[in-house]
Every structure is written in C-alpha cells, then in structure tokens.
Design brief:
Elements: H1 2-12, H2 14-27, H3 33-36, H4 59-73, H5 75-86, H6 90-116, H7 122-135, H8 144-169, H9 172-202, H10 204-216, H11 228-237, H12 243-257, H13 268-295
The structure holds fe (ii) ion (2 copies).
One fe (ii) ion binds at residues 103, 155, 158, 184-185, 188.
C-alpha cells in the first residue's frame, strides 16, 4: 500500500511535530472574544427585527465576513479529517484538539460581532450555517502529506482573507477582531508549514506530488456553501481574496519557504513534479491578469 509510506513518514517526523506544537504553545496569544465584541450595540431581534438599512458595513465587507464565518463554522469536519489522518499518532491527536479549541473562538467572535452590529441578516445567516454544515466538507486529501499541504495553504489563505476582510470593513472593532483571528491563523499556518518542511526533509520525492496536487487544484473549503460563487466573486472584486492575492501571498511564499526549486536528491518522477509545481505561479498569474483586466486592480 503506497499510503502506508506516508503514515510511516508521519511517525518518523513525530519529534519535529512535538517541537512545532511546543513552539506554538509558546507563541500563541490567548484572547477573549467577549472583550472585543461591541455588546453595547446589541438589541432584541424580537422587538426590533433586522432590516438591511441597519447595516453599517458595505455589502462587500458583509459578504466577506459572512463567507469567512461560514468557513469557520465547518470546523467539526476539519477536525474529523485531521483526526482520520492522525491514526494513532498521540502528538497529532493532541495538536488537533488544541487547534480545534483555538479555531472554535473564531466563529464565536465573528458571529457575535455580526449580530450585535446587525451587519448580517440573522435568519439568512442561520439558514446558511445549517445548509453549509449539513452538506459537510472533506478536502479529499488521500494521505497526511496531502492533508497537511492543504492545511498549510488553507491557513495562510485564511489568514490573508480574514485580515483583508477586516481592512475592507473599515470599522475599528471588525478590524481588531479579524486581526486577532488572522494572527491565530498565522500561527496555525506556521505549524502546518513546519510539518511539511519536516516531511520534505525526510522524503522529498514522496511529498512533492502531494504538494503539487494541493497547489494545482486549490479550492477554499467554502465551495459547497449557499451562493458560494456569487459571494467569492464579490470578495475577489473587492480584493479580499482573488488570484492575485493567492499568487503573491500564498503560492510564492510557500514555494520559497519549502525551497521547492532547490530540492535535490529527487527521483526522476519527482523532478518532473518539481518542475510542474514551479510552473503553477505563472498560470495563476495569467488568470490574475485576466481578472484584473476585466475588473481592475484592487490593493487593500
Ligand atoms: Fe479559523
Ligand atoms: Fe486556523
């Protein structure tokens, strides 16, 4: 079974995973959503029903915050997928619990903000949450190398998306909440990036195809959500997350951090994969240029 090699690799790098988790515990910042949410703005939805005229943020900012919230809501599925690939690895199982606990606060903070400030329709938000979560999500990663390459890309993408949504909101509280969340995502990103770095050091020819699979077909985990395409396009036009952002702030930094171009000792097949990975940024760059010609360049 080819996949067994990946699980053996995971066991081999367990000491490095432990170090990464220890470093994360040192680095992580504990924060409290209740200190940031503007509860003083909260009003009863029974006596004072929601109406769009109550919104203070632009439609693009609201869409970005709502889509990012629905992405956070799907946490049980991410937890389950990580657990399924952790098998009996105690260190990874421990990480998955810590990571899940930290992630849990993101939806709490974001939902509390949107409801107290009335920047989301509470009925639509709950209907969308229910639809999203009853659809479920699975990245489809066939092995732990694919999964952790995916989570590395995803955490970095989410970090940028949250930060940009906070900037677009043009509201001090939203900016602070999204900044806090983005900082958490950055720390998670550092963990998952480190897992792949350790895997690459041990078995580059095994890990490169996993990275290629993720980078060539990357999709945010929101694809199954209600009105996903319309919402994602709105966010792309506003510059929160689009191909330019993906190219500049996710793909290039990861290719550089993992030193993909200079990896050596590769099998002939892995060398081909290495070249294919190096060709991805220019493809994405072309797509970004086409999009910008059509909708203009936005820098948040
Ligand atoms: Fe998160
Ligand atoms: Fe995260």
């Amino acid at each position: 079974m080819a996949n067994e090699e990946y699980y053996e690799l995971l066991d081999t790098i367990t000491p490095q995973i432990q170090e990464l988790m220890d470093a994360h515990r040192e680095r992580r910042q504990h924060w409290y959503a209740h200190e940031l949410v503007p509860w003083e703005q909260g009003r009863s939805f029974r006596t004072d029903p929601w109406d769009e005229s109550q919104c203070t943020l632009s439609p693009e900012a609201r869409t970005s915050l709502v889509l990012n919230l629905l992405t956070e809501d799907n946490l049980p599925y991410y937890h389950a997928e990580i657990e399924s690939h952790s098998t009996k690895n105690e260190v990874l199982l421990e990480w998955n619990k810590l990571w899940t606990a930290e992630e849990g606060q993101h939806a709490i903070a974001l939902r509390s903000y949107l409801l107290t400030t009335r920047n989301a329709d509470p009925v639509e938000l709950e209907d969308d949450r229910l639809a999203t979560m009853s659809t479920g999500y699975h990245s489809g990663a066939p092995n732990p190398a694919s999964l952790f390459a995916y989570t590395a890309v995803q955490e970095l993408a989410t970090r940028v998306s949250h930060r940009n949504a906070g900037k677009l909101a043009d509201d001090e509280v939203a900016y602070e909440i999204m900044g806090r969340i983005a900082t958490d995502e950055n720390h998670h990103f550092m963990f998952y990036r480190g897992v792949i770095t350790a895997m690459l050091k041990e078995a580059p020819s095994l890990v490169l195809p996993a990275i290629y699979g993720v980078m060539a077909n990357f999709e945010m985990p929101g694809v199954g959500m209600p009105k996903y395409m319309r919402r994602a396009v709105q966010m792309a036009k506003a510059g929160v997350y689009n191909m330019r952002v993906h190219h500049d702030r996710v793909l290039l930094p990861l290719i550089r951090d993992w030193k993909i171009e200079s990896l050596d000792g590769l099998s002939a097949k892995a060398q081909e994969v290495q070249e294919k990975i190096m060709a991805i940024p220019s493809l994405i760059d072309d797509q970004a240029t086409t999009f910008e010609r059509r909708y203009g360049v936005v820098n948040l």
